[in-house]
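JOB MANIFEST
job_type = single_chain_structure
chain_count = 1
residues = 283
[input]
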Amino acid sequence: MTIRLLLIILFIPFNVNSGTSIVASIKPIHSITSSIASNIAGPKLLLDYSQDAHHFNLKPSQIRMINDSNMLIAINPNFETGMSKLLNSIKSNNKIIITDTKKINLILSNGNSSPNYHLWLDISNIKNISNHIAEKLILIDPDNKVNYKDNLNVLTLKLDKLENKISNKLSKYANNNFATYSDSLQYFIESNLLKKPFIVTKYHGDRLSIYAAIKARNTIKNSKINCLLSDIDIPKEKIDTLTKDLNIKKARIDVMGININEGPEQYFKLMNNITDEIVQCLQ
């Protein structure tokens, strides 16, 4: 990030005018926020499809978007690192840090002491996060308290149905052996009681050495693993090299739902898509 852009971020005053204007960093969080604020406010999505949530530089238009809002919602400054300084400069009443949610299940990354931030893949987490978002929005917009609570109740019922639907689909594959390229699906796997997978790399973003690749191939072969799950940001060539001459199914998972249109249904489509991809791989 340039010094000039950093100075813009730090010295633009954060708008606290009347009315509710919400900005959410990533699509899954924007989706549930859209449900909670339905017919009250239209949350804006901060990051576009071309921006990596872990590594990005804020555009001037995005800085203006944040400045024109009075609530910014993000996972954690250590997740959306491109706006960590901005997040830390905003008053607590005007931001929601998802990892601050009470009763949230926060898992440590595989082989790492830092948290795994892909927590939206656990529907129980999303229920608690939804309550947290609703409470914070009511604080800045008390006139719509009843509407926020009504929307929250509707969303919770939909999440209950989604949870049951996914659980029923995956239950028959609970004991199947499979592998994942990284730990980004850890929340989804654990919350749906699937068998602990063999994880090729230690954590999301970890590099795969030649030695580690050879060792992983041997483990996949000897353990008779016939399904490998990976994120869509892992180049197909890497997966093909890792699995060459192995009898294994492969599924590339879009854990963020980048290719799903934004809006209230995005999260539901995301979770259903992940489920169907995994079922097809485990069959």
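[summary]
The CA atoms of residues 93 and 139 lie 8 Å apart.
Residues 1-18 have pLDDT under 50 and may be disordered.
exit_status = 0
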